[in-house]
């Protein structure tokens, strides 16, 4: 039996990488999915693929998570179209690694806006609905960089530690509300994430990196595991690292 049949799941950052893989995996398990990001053409292609392959609804809502009213609209439009919100995956994020000495202040601000404020807007937009439903599951995508700080990850890590802190606080506050919270912390995954890095010192450092990253599907499986546990089980933290060969 499909374990998420008739559930409604919103996934932010569904236009590529991990978010796209999560959307497909949740649809595979029977959920109706709401695909959110700024690149609506990519979302539309994914919606078509999902609807051709799985007997679920897939709708596209173009939204920028740094815009509070976009995120409020994402939840309101979902409720209008699909009636409820069972799952909200706070996945959209940017990783603009840089060394502090190179002073990429605009990128620091962008990471705070997307990775922290975007998650806060998601919580603000969806939590009242889940509390009223007395049921729901919020998945926050943090990172191993939200558990350790690496050279050049200082500001990115600060944002991902913040995500982890939000998850921990939510879990404590919501444990009797019917709303479950999962913090997912991936290690390196092969996606578009590193393509946006502009710090030349980091780009040079990455050239010497010798490792085999995870696939986005590996993270989607971990998210699906947390979402398909019995309602009495709250999987609060999942860390997934690649094996070194
Ligand atoms: P991608 O770059 O492939 O995906 C990032 C997603 O975030 C895209 O769909 C992008 O969509 C969306 N996004 C970025 N900015 C905004 C915005 N302002 N508003 C709405 N959506 C936005 O990277 P990943 O799939 O790797 O990243 C997904 C998450 O996983 C991130 O939170 C990242 O920090 C985390 N992570 C990734 C790791 C990795 O190694 N890849 C490791 C640990 C954590 P669009 O541009 O269309 O808006």
UniProtKB/TrEMBL annotation:
EC number(s) per entry: 1.-.-.-
Pfam families the UniProt entry points to: adh_short
Major enzyme class: oxidoreductase
Species: Halobacillus seohaensis
GO MF annotations in UniProt: oxidoreductase activity
Organism placement in taxonomy: Bacteria, Bacillati, Bacillota, Bacilli, Bacillales
Protein's name according to its UniProt entry: SDR family oxidoreductase
Family classification: Belongs to the short-chain dehydrogenases/reductases (SDR) family.
Keywords on record: Oxidoreductase
